[in-house]
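User: Just a sanity check before I run the rest of the batch. Below are the structure tokens for the first item. I only need the designed sequence back.
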């Protein structure tokens, strides 16, 4: 149980999580600083270099 409960960017706990079964990751969004990132099911940080979540990138196509 080492999941990140706080935003890795600003440390706030106002983080929304959405588990995405198709990619086995949590898509996280901080409602304080607006950052978005992904974590795998083990709680490992998986943010992309471009600073967006994979969901956002897919939505743009
Ligand atoms: Zn934040």
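Assistant: Here's the designed sequence for the first item:
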């Amino acid at each position: 149980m080492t999941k990140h409960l706080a935003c890795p960017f600003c440390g706030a706990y106002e983080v929304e999580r959405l588990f995405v079964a198709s990619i086995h990751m949590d898509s996280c969004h901080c409602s304080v600083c607006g950052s978005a990132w992904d974590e795998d099911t083990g709680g490992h940080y998986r943010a992309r270099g471009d600073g967006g979540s994979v969901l956002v990138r897919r939505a743009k196509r």
